[in-house]
Specification:
five-stranded antiparallel beta sheet, about 140 residues
């Protein structure tokens, strides 16, 4: 795989509010904690958190964060990923394969995109097409 570069799709800018430095190519969401202001972003850590897209830089707390919202990008795998897997977020903001929930849930679950290449292990970089949407029930 070639050396990773930023993705090719539209990006939005915000203020990174996590107290830890962001990991490039993980998933961001709007910061909804008390005291947050417009354009504050943090790491997405659950399927039920609405993802904005893939972080394209490495901001520290209160620094500019660039998030790609659609198109092709690299991503960090949370486990092995196969070509064409639907992808959701794990507790570390990495991308993992997800399936439709057969149980139904009171909270919506979200897909971040689809795998355009495979990843053999957690923390591997792979290609994703970002297509954020709510996951349908099985």
């Amino acid at each position: 795989m070639p050396s990773p570069t930023t993705g090719d799709g539209p990006k939005i800018s915000g203020n990174w509010k996590n107290s830890t430095t962001a990991v490039r190519y993980t998933v961001a969401r709007i910061d909804v904690s008390a005291g947050s202001t417009e354009n504050d972003m943090e790491l997405a850590t659950a399927l039920t958190e609405y993802p904005l897209g893939i972080i394209q830089n490495v901001p520290e707390e209160n620094q500019h964060c660039a998030v790609q919202t659609s198109g092709n990008s690299y991503a960090v795998a949370g486990a092995a990923v196969s070509l064409d897997d639907l992808l959701g977020v794990d507790s570390a903001g990495r991308l993992v394969a997800v399936t439709k929930s057969a149980t139904g849930t009171t909270n919506p679950e979200y897909v971040v995109g689809v795998a355009m290449s495979a990843a053999a292990n957690a923390d591997d970089l792979f290609k994703i097409q970002i297509r954020v949407h709510e996951m349908e029930l099985a």
